[in-house]
Amino acid sequence: MYDVLKKIHWSPQQRIVPTIETIAIENDAPWRPLSKIFEGLFLTCEETICNRCFAQRSGISLILTLNGSDYVAPYRVYEYSYDTQCCVYTKLPSFSEFLTSLDHYTSQETPEEVQLRKVFIRSVPAEDSAAYDISRHFSELCTLIELVMVNRKNLQKSCLPLHSLGVHCLVGASRSVAVVAAYIMKRSGCSKDEALLIVKNARPVANPNPGFHAQLLYWEKAGYYRVVDSLTASLTANELRHKSMLKTYMEKYFPLVLRANKLGCDREFFRPCYSGSMSR
């Protein structure tokens, strides 16, 4: 996993070039189109992207599902099985294996035969509630998005369609929009309002709930960091290999953790560290 993470560099920040383009679906509902936010990233609803054959034809190699169910495996890949001669879902046991497999697949050209294209699916059972802490998922999901973007850039000379990704929730208006905005903010260093404007220009139905707005503001104030468990700690540690990132972390994130009630999960994760140091 750590060899893959070394491919990801958040510094220097890069400007996101928005692309206002939609792939129309045979339905007048405003949430159904596949909205291209920028090259390589689409935002849509569950109804559209749950058609995995459509995802394969569209060159979507990664799907981030924000309205997942507790009984659905968090890490899966939809792939062709030569045994059954059809596409099946295969569970992957961990983020590490998911990341490594995704990197291996998206580092290569997209298979020309549509049926042989894989679709990696990260399912998060997030709630569209102002009280739900969606920002605890930002670090992991931003990492997955950036990995596809990095590998996509390395394959730009390919004659075949480049790997893309799709982000969705139930209607593609709140949970998925919050995640895409969080990525745009972290990648480009822009504000919450600037990121949401980019998304809304491409997808007019975009409208995160007030709680997600507040969390995106904290994401901005904290320098685009959350450390709530061992996974996010590992992802953050990888970023802090760069001195410029360490400076931002110490000046923005850490002071906010100590005083912001909204970052209680972060404080709880660090509690054993500072409790142990104070007892010495």
Set down the secondary structure blueprint.
Layout lengths: L1 H4 L12 E6 L10 E5 L2 E5 H4 L2 H6 L2 E6 L9 E7 L4 E6 L3 H12 L12 E5 L14 H17 L9 E6 L5 H14 L3 H11 L7 H12 L8 H10 L3 H17 L4 H16 L1
Helix pairs in contact: 4-5, 5-6, 6-7, 6-8
How would you describe this protein?
This protein has one domain (2-222): Protein tyrosine phosphatase superfamily (Protein-Tyrosine Phosphatase, Chain A). A hairpin with a 4-residue loop joins β5 and β6. It has helices spanning 2-5, 46-49, 52-57, 95-106, 138-154, 175-188, 192-202, 210-221, 230-239, 243-259, 264-279, and strands at residues 18-23, 34-38, 41-45, 60-65, 75-81, 86-91, 119-123, 164-169. With 280 residues, the chain is of the alpha/beta class. α4 (95-106) runs parallel beside α5, α5 (138-154) packs across α6 (175-188) and α6 (175-188) runs parallel beside α8 (210-221). The longest helix is centred in the middle third of the chain and has 17 residues, at 138-154. The chain is globular. It has an eight-stranded mixed sheet with strand order 1-2-3-8-4-7-5-6.
Q: Give me the strand/helix succession.
A: HEEEHHEEEHEHEHHHHHH
User: What count of structural domains?
Assistant: 1
Q: Would you report the number of β strands?
A: 8
Name the strands of the widest sheet in spatial order.
Answer: 1-2-3-8-4-7-5-6
Q: Into which percentage range does the β-strand content fall? A: 15-25%
Write out the CATH superfamily name. Answer: Protein tyrosine phosphatase superfamily
N-C termini distance: 34 Å
The first-level CATH class is given as Alpha Beta
Rg, nearest Å: 19 Å
